[in-house]
Amino acid sequence: MVIIIINSVNVDPFSRKEWYNIKAPSMFTNRLVGQTIVNRTAGTKIASEGLKQRVFEISLGDLNNHDDDFRKFRLVCEDVNGRDCLTNFHGMSFTRDKLCSLVKKWQTLIEAHVDVKTNDGYQLRLFCIGFTKRHQDQHKKTSYAQHSQVRAIRSKMVEIMTREVSTSDLREVVTKLIPDSIGKDIQKACNSIYPLHDVYVRKVKVLKKPKFESTFNFSSLLFHTRVSSSLCLTNLKSSENSFSFINSSFFF
């Protein structure tokens, strides 16, 4: 009886991986927000291709160096420049504990959502939340709004969110989401209908993106590369059209 002993070699899985820096868009204070790992380039598998469209969820406290913040921003890797992952805005949401702390008794919860397109071609879906509060010098414990008042407040939410987003590009929308100026405008506008408090844009989704668009956080090199490639495609299409026209005139 022959016994074959095979010496197994333990290979460190991290030896086949490399680290890349995550760079946030330019409107945030802290641009370098972390690192991500990916397999090294081997054969036909390129490391940078495995990083594209990777989504990172980062707290606004880490992006703007604040200790207490309850907003989480989602950033998607659009391109890789050297060892840097260039990211773009991909969504925003609240933390679970913040949402749970807002809901209380003796008040009416009002929610609204709307799909809006920015002026640079991004289709966004915004979710707004707000709560009624007692009138000034009110002794009654409850502050319930009537159905007609809820409908009026909801329509006002949709109107303000549509106006603020449709007249801005994606960079300006993100700048408005950081201090939540849209929620403050809604709270002021709805005071004549029913007093509100804790009005926030609690969630933002990116539904559609433009195909060939220079986003706000890309370097100028990437912008010129995309423009030159689109010009080359345009020239190629025009030359093909002229060639087909010559061939058709020749045969006829």
TrEMBL record:
<dbReference type="Pfam" id="PF01015">
    <property type="entry name" value="Ribosomal_S3Ae"/>
</dbReference>
<dbReference type="InterPro" id="IPR001593">
    <property type="entry name" value="Ribosomal_eS1"/>
</dbReference>
<protein>
    <recommendedName>
        <fullName>Small ribosomal subunit protein eS1</fullName>
    </recommendedName>
</protein>
<comment type="similarity">
    <text>Belongs to the eukaryotic ribosomal protein eS1 family.</text>
</comment>
<dbReference type="GO" id="GO:0003735">
    <property type="term" value="F:structural constituent of ribosome"/>
</dbReference>
<keyword id="KW-0689">Ribosomal protein</keyword>
<comment type="subunit">
    <text>Component of the small ribosomal subunit. Mature ribosomes consist of a small (40S) and a large (60S) subunit. The 40S subunit contains about 33 different proteins and 1 molecule of RNA (18S). The 60S subunit contains about 49 different proteins and 3 molecules of RNA (28S, 5.8S and 5S).</text>
</comment>
<dbReference type="InterPro" id="IPR027500">
    <property type="entry name" value="Ribosomal_eS1_euk"/>
</dbReference>
<dbReference type="GO" id="GO:0022627">
    <property type="term" value="C:cytosolic small ribosomal subunit"/>
</dbReference>
<keyword id="KW-0687">Ribonucleoprotein</keyword>
<keyword id="KW-0963">Cytoplasm</keyword>
<dbReference type="GO" id="GO:0006412">
    <property type="term" value="P:translation"/>
</dbReference>
